[in-house]
Amino acid sequence: MMKPLLVCFIALSALVSSALADDNISVRGEFIQGGIIIGKAPSGTKIFLNQEVIKLSEQGDFVFGFGRDAEGVIELSIQKPNGEIQTQNYEIKKRDYAIQRIEGVAKKYVSPPKEVSDRISRDAAVVAKARTSNFDEPMYASGFIWPAQGRISGVYGSQRVFNGVPKRPHYGVDVAAPVGTPILAPAPGIVTLAEPDLYYSGGTVILDHGHGLSSTFLHMDSVTAKVGDFLTQGDQLGTLGATGRVTGPHLDWRMNWFKERVDPVTLVGQMPK
């Protein structure tokens, strides 16, 4: 059985600040490991993160994020339509990650037999391809809600130990709830993956929110969304289940900004009571 996770969430309030002392440019979020930053700037502005161009919508929306182990100082620069450039440095705040020990995981998921190695590789390739989309529409800008409600049984960044065997860190937030609980789109998006049975993650859906920001929903009992579907916030995409590598029914909600694995909780805050 899954042991209780003895860790408290970091205070991940949705901070709203003016990053560059300009009333026309806003940034909300926290510069922290796993953090997601959503901003707004006048049309015609150019945004640079460590001198790399960040996509800006016609409405001036932009987004970027930081991985679990990001560290050091990043440089955020904004070039206004008149050519003026403002630059500010931010130090990425470090987080303390728990170790979560989980017993009772089926042996085939801890040490997969050789005959399933090709299937695992194919699954990984399908998921990676689905995350290469880069839609122009900033669907993330309308805000996010929890896709399901229940007990938090796993948090972002925790080191996982299955049956005593150390594995990769956990990159999502786990919501434990009964099988069949509806899973809703946390924000508008386009479905880029809808698979009923991947080896590790079982029923899996990827919903792209634009500009490289996507949500992934794992261990689903049923998948009703289809690739190419446009979902609005609150639309159902399937039901919660116990498929793939699990010890009980739950939703594993993950988010990516391109290849960076980011923390959904930085967008939605604590689970409503």
Number of strands: 21
* The first-level CATH class name of the largest domain: Mainly Beta
Query: Mean pLDDT, rounded to whole units?
Result: 87
Fourth-level CATH superfamily of the largest domain: Glucose Permease (Domain IIA)
What's the gyration radius in Å?
19 Å
Describe what this molecule looks like in 3D.
Helices cover 8% and strands 39% of the residues. The chain has 273 residues and is mostly beta strands. The chain folds into 2 domains: 16-91, Immunoglobulin-like, CATH 2.60.40; 99-268, Glucose Permease (Domain IIA) (Distorted Sandwich). A hairpin with a 3-residue loop joins strand 15 and strand 16 (202-208).
List keywords for this structure.
mainly beta, 4-stranded antiparallel beta sheet, 2 domains, Immunoglobulin-like, 10-stranded antiparallel beta sheet, Glucose Permease (Domain IIA), 273 residues, single chain
What's this entry about, in short?
The protein contains three helices and 21 strands. It has helices spanning 107-110, 117-130, 265-268; strands at 16-17, 26-28, 36-40, 46-49, 52-54, 61-65, 73-79, 85-91, 99-102, 151-154, 159-162, 165-169, 172-176, 182-184, 189-198, 202-208, 213-223, 230-231, 236-240, 250-257, 260-262. The relative contact order is 0.18.
